[in-house]
Amino acid sequence: MASPPSDQTRQQRRPTMKDVAAAAGVSLKTVSRVVNGESNVNDDLRAAVLESITRLGFRRNASARDLRQGRSGTVGLLLEDVADPFYSILSRAVEDVAREHGTMVFAGSSAEDADRERELALAFCERRVDGLIIVPAGSSHSYLLPEIRAGIPAVFVDRPPGDIEADMILTDNRGGSRRGVEHLLSHGHRRIGFIGDAPEIYTAGERLRGYREALESAGIPFSDTLVAQATPTPASTAEALDRLLAGQTPATALFCGNSRTTVSVLRELARRSTRLALVGFDDVELGDLLQPGLTVVAQDPGAMGAAAARLLFQRIAGDAAGPAAGPPQTVTIGTRLIPRGSGELMDP
């Protein structure tokens, strides 16, 4: 019978099933049966194997097992920024669904850089992930076609892919924006400014459309002079407010296109004495503690992440009765208006 590995040997490498078999004095097949939870093992032999597993610190090689089954037990998640609160909630929801499927999640941030997105997505594919969930940064995703044809499904979240057909989980950006502007209109405002993200971003464009539709439905002409779109920075926000609040008929209310813009606007308004009604798209942490509380059109990033993960695992499973067998799916998640005070200020 082979001698069990020495302490020095165990420090140099991870213990294997062969090491467990040698330490327990049983066959490799017996260890395999115990590790895989099979019932046809003598109780004494099972106890010896389990004691050796504990003593040696053996861990089953799940990667090797999954690869033998044609899966890696991992999925890739590509976000704009894993530190952003919106994407943190979305990521957690993906993890929760993945855990139900015995799958780990690799996550990375694209930082709105199309080249970085491509690099990370292909790096995940090289590690043989079973599928991808992507918040797209670029407008071209044809680089994924060979991977998709090879059996790696992809679900896009928050924004559609640029040049391929694929599953999408989107927010009702236009409808949510329209509802937020209608809320300001209902409180007597007619000069409503829009401060949004860079215009080339899909969500920014959709939210501007909702803003425009709400005004036009109320019989108020759309005016470019009340719109400012740029990546939110202290300088861009100050410039936008200077323009929107200038002249004899300044804006009396603002609709902000995302949470970062809203926070930037709040910081700038705190330096001024201007009184404005304000509604933001996306909720903001501690927004309910402001005076007045921040009125928002809230997305549900948790629902988006969960829906994306469930659809991805349906594709991975190849369920002939579900969407895996059909054309790409588009799921739209609704928004809700949360009135807290800032959007209810009357037109002065």
Automatic annotation (TrEMBL):
Gene3D superfamilies given in the database record: 3.40.50.2300, lambda repressor-like DNA-binding domains
InterPro entries, per the entry: HTH_LacI, LacI/GalR-like_sensor, Lambda_DNA-bd_dom_sf, Peripla_BP_I
PROSITE patterns: HTH_LACI_1, HTH_LACI_2
Source organism (scientific name): Nocardioides panzhihuensis
A Pfam family reported for this protein in Swiss-Prot or TrEMBL: LacI
Domain of life, source organism: Bacteria
Renumbered residue ranges of the record's region Disordered: 322-348
Protein known as: LacI family transcriptional regulator
HTH lacI-type domain ranges (all copies): 15-69
UniProt lineage: Bacteria, Bacillati, Actinomycetota, Actinomycetes, Propionibacteriales
Keywords carried by this UniProt record: DNA-binding, Transcription, Transcription regulation
Gene Ontology MF terms in the entry: DNA-binding transcription factor activity; transcription cis-regulatory region binding
